[in-house]
Design brief:
Length: 477
């Protein structure tokens, strides 16, 4: 079963996934070779493999044959179109598939694909796998091909291959994976409009600064790019880092290929410039990715602690047997209601006891006694409004606070509860049942009366109902 959060390109059947993967890989490979290579040497950056790697990582059950075969055909077609030979496309394609397979296998078995860059350890593992191990293995084949087919220097070809493929995987795999898994869409939907505006604003600032550094500045001020990228990292976490680094890579890549910007000031010749630009992006990534992982991990821990506190608070205010508010939780809710009570607003309280509860425990055991309390809880919840507040103070003592209900209405509700419990006997075992009944005291809050006085009067009315023989309702004076 495919990941339900992934978009159509990952969820679709193999017959649709294959052409989609082949076309995407072909377009990325052909464009990269055309823009960053002379047709014989190694392309200076290679994002095409990141598409296939992201497709493999995005699916719960990767379709290895489908995706790798699509990548092979797309790669051969792109190389044949741009390089004009057959031997090189075949060998380059083999090298790229080897790289993708190694990266997907190592990353997929390391627990990383659920979220690249989520932890510092995971980020460093991803950097080592995608930046060194996988491109290093494929670089041996790629550099040998460049040397044997095009007579390019094998050492330089290997270095360019490792840097180009490594940066392509590191920069673009997290972005494509986030797209294919729907992370960007989920993040956008989870944000408020002010947060969305902040996100777009920070990314726009990053783009403007990158444009200024690479196209406007007359001095090599690459260091100016670190503050906006780090700001995006701290404000948006790993997804923001991915987007910001890709923006810098795209703007800087275009400038460097056009022989413009600070890279051209610092290095002579397209190869040296490409290597320097790759080195700069590598430093930017190594600086920001662990920070992004740490920010994400801290956010995750903060959310986990908040959820833990919420659960602890819920446990502290909830009766574990019935799921109702306990004495502490009921008192907190009552304090809130009384604090927001308007002058003259009606408010009533029912004090309820389950008649002869001790006899039920003595005759059938505490398990049946617990069943009786849960049974009573269901009856009470079914007969009152969602806005009414029910609490179990202990034993068989229950309270129901009725906002906007006067004494007459509260007595009617009490009568309805007594009738409902009589009409729903408790099933004990093997069809045996026992009849239940309630004693209820009813009190309506007086003007400016505090809760403690209201509870005392409701309790006195409850004792009057018990004294009258139980199965009765008494109203407080």
């Amino acid at each position: 079963m495919m990941d339900l959060r992934a978009p159509l390109i990952v969820q679709t059947r193999a017959k649709m996934l294959w052409p989609a993967a082949a076309v995407l890989h072909f377009l990325a490979a052909a464009a990269t070779i055309h823009l960053t290579s002379n047709g014989h040497d190694i392309a200076t950056i290679w994002p095409a493999n990141a598409i296939l790697l992201a497709l493999l990582l995005a699916a719960r059950k990767p379709r290895w044959l489908t995706i790798l075969s699509a990548g092979f055909v797309g790669n051969v077609a792109a190389n044949l179109l741009t390089r004009g030979t057959l031997a090189a496309p075949l060998l380059y394609s083999v090298a790229n598939l080897l790289e993708i397979a190694i990266a997907a296998r190592l990353i997929g078995t390391s627990g990383v694909p659920g979220g690249l860059l989520q932890t510092t350890k995971g980020s460093l593992r991803f950097l080592a796998t995608a930046g060194l191990i996988a491109p290093g293995a494929s670089g041996l084949v790629g550099a040998a091909t460049a040397f044997l087919v095009f007579e390019e220097p094998i050492g330089q070809s290997f270095l360019v291959w490792v840097l180009a493929d490594g940066l392509g995987l590191i920069i673009f795999t997290p972005v494509f994976l986030a797209l294919f898994r729907g992370d960007f869409a989920d993040c956008f939907r989870a944000k408020t409009w002010p947060e969305r505006c902040e996100t777009f604003g920070l990314l726009m600032i990053t783009a403007l600064i990158a444009y200024g550094v690479f196209f406007v500045a007359v001095r090599p001020i690459l260091f100016v790019l670190f503050p906006p990228v780090l700001l995006v990292t701290f404000r948006m976490g790993r997804l923001g880092t991915k987007a910001a680094v890709v923006i810098v890579a795209l703007i800087g890549g275009v400038a460097t290929m056009r022989a413009e910007g600070p890279i051209t000031f610092l290095a002579d010749g397209p190869v040296a410039q490409a290597l320097l630009f790759q080195a700069f992006l590598g430093v930017l990534l190594i600086t920001c990715m662990p920070i992004a992982a740490e920010v994400t991990e801290r956010a995750r821990l903060t959310a986990a602690l908040a959820e833990h506190d919420r659960q602890m608070m819920e446990k502290a205010s909830t009766d574990p047997l019935t799921g109702l508010l306990n004495r502490y939780g009921f008192a907190s809710m009552v304090a809130h209601v009384f604090h927001h009570r308007e002058d003259g607003q009606a408010l009533s309280l029912l004090a309820i006891d389950l008649d002869h509860f001790k006899s039920i425990n003595d005759r059938w055991g505490h398990q049946v006694g617990d069943d009786a309390l849960r049974h009573l809880t269901r009856v009470l919840a079914a007969e009152v409004r969602p806005t009414d507040i029910i609490g179990r103070l202990g034993g068989d003592e229950f309270l129901i606070l009725l906002p906007a209900v006067d004494l007459v209405e509260a007595s009617i509700i009490g009568q309805r509860l007594c009738t409902a419990i009589r009409h729903e006997p408790l099933t004990i075992d093997r069809g045996a049942v026992t009849m239940l009944s309630l004693s209820i005291g009813v009190a309506a809050a007086l003007p400016d009366e505090e809760y403690v006085d209201l509870a005392r009067r409701a309790d006195e009315a409850l004792y009057a109902a018990k004294a009258a023989g139980r199965n009765a309702i008494r109203l407080a004076s």
